[in-house]
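Handoff note, outgoing to incoming analyst
You'll be picking up this chain. Sequence as last confirmed:
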Amino acid sequence: MPKAYWIVHLDITDPAAYPAYIAAQGDVFARHGGRFIVRGGAFDALEGAARARHVVIEFPSMEAARACYHSPDYQAALKLRLAASEGEAIIVEGVP
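Most recent structure output, in case you need it:
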């Protein structure tokens, strides 16, 4: 079964409020088998427009990635992220 990845590109619109989202995540990703591959960091925008922050989280499967996103714990944290940032988030299946 291929792994799956959350890929998130963000611009933080309220830097004072964004840390509440980070704190609210707690261990929700780990409980679903997720681990951070990328969490911020330097980047080169080679083509097109790029947002300021990039996150990649690896999960053992699409089911685990979806379950994490739709879990009550993450949905509570997500409200904080949406209030403090704008961007795009996808779940993509890895190569088998």
